[in-house]
Design a protein that fits this description.
This protein starts with 5 loop residues before the first helix and ends with a helix. About 55% of the residues lie in helices and about 15% in strands. With about 230 residues, the protein is of the alpha/beta class. The strands form two sheets. Strands 2-3-1-4-7 form a five-stranded parallel beta sheet, with helices on both faces. A two-stranded antiparallel ribbon has the order 5-6. Strand 5 and strand 6 form a beta hairpin. The structure holds adenosine monophosphate (AMP). The site of adenosine monophosphate (AMP) has 17 residues, from helix 3 and helix 4.
Length: about 230
């Protein structure tokens, strides 16, 4: 009974997930799936910062200088923002999915110190050359927020002309900036993971989207099951 209905119950487990991976490995696609399937609150620090830049808040104005150069923004701008968001009632009730945070050992340490601990850390893997190709072809439609790839994920044929006229490339998605972002990612990864020993599940991110989604679902269902077993 418990096993056959745990997929239903998964919506009632306040799951806490960190997703980590190099830029453009497919975190956005998986986050969309996880959010819908497990009902968690998706917290993307990149999105929060882009929003702040767009609204020209104090944080946004300072963060922009770093973001435009592919550099991490200082912790002073981001730690309180994330902490406040995680402590809010929607995250407490529904669980959370951290995407883009922690990005350094110091940010992981902050989480541990504040007892913000995930149930699982999903690490999406892809070789650097795949990442560079994926990012340099990435485009966003400002009207809908939909993300496309010029070759691998073009807009649907009926709206392609229209979307291509307005789509934009993120200022940090150029090949030069990607190299900086990837170098930072590799330099920080082990420092982050050492704080979450025994929680990591590695999944190949350069497979077909459906295969990656199935692997992610399998890993998260396992965690939901173990949480449910602990509570009965
Ligand atoms: P993303 O959309 O996750 O690739 O983030 C875009 C940019 O936002 C990054 O290149 C950083 O400049 C900044 N950023 C996002 N999350 C963080 C974080 N946790 N710490 C520092 N900077 C971040």
């Amino acid at each position: 009974m418990l096993i056959s209905s745990f997929i239903f119950y998964a919506h009632f487990v306040a799951l806490k997930v960190i997703i980590i991976g190099p830029p453009a490995v497919g975190k956005g696609t998986q986050c969309e799936h996880i959010k819908q399937h497990y009902g968690v609150v998706h917290l993307s620090t990149g999105e929060m910062l882009r929003q702040a830049v767009q609204e020209q808040t104090e944080i946004g104005i300072t963060a922009r200088k770093y973001m435009d150069n592919g550099l991490l923004v200082p912790d002073s701008l981001i730690l309180d923002m994330v902490n406040a968001r995680i402590m809010s009632s929607d995250c407490k009730d529904n669980g959370w999915l951290l995407d883009g945070f922690p990005r350094s050992a110091a940010q992981a340490e902050f989480m541990v110190k504040h007892n913000i601990l995930p149930d699982i850390v999903i690490l999406l893997l892809a070789p650097d050359e795949v990442v560079v190709e994926r990012i340099s072809g990435r485009r966003t439609d400002p009207a809908t927020g939909n993300v496309y790839h010029v070759t691998y994920q073009p807009p649907p044929i009926d709206i392609a002309e229209e979307v291509k006229k307005r789509w934009v490339q993120r200022s940090d998605d150029t090949e030069e900036k990607i190299k900086v972002r990837l170098a930072q990612y590799h330099a920080n990864l082990q420092g982050i993971l050492q704080h979450f020993k025994g929680m990591k599940v590695s999944i190949k991110g350069d497979e077909a989207k459906e295969i990656v989604t199935a692997e992610v679902t399998r890993a998260l269902d396992e965690v939901c099951k173990s949480i449910l077993y602990q509570t009965v």
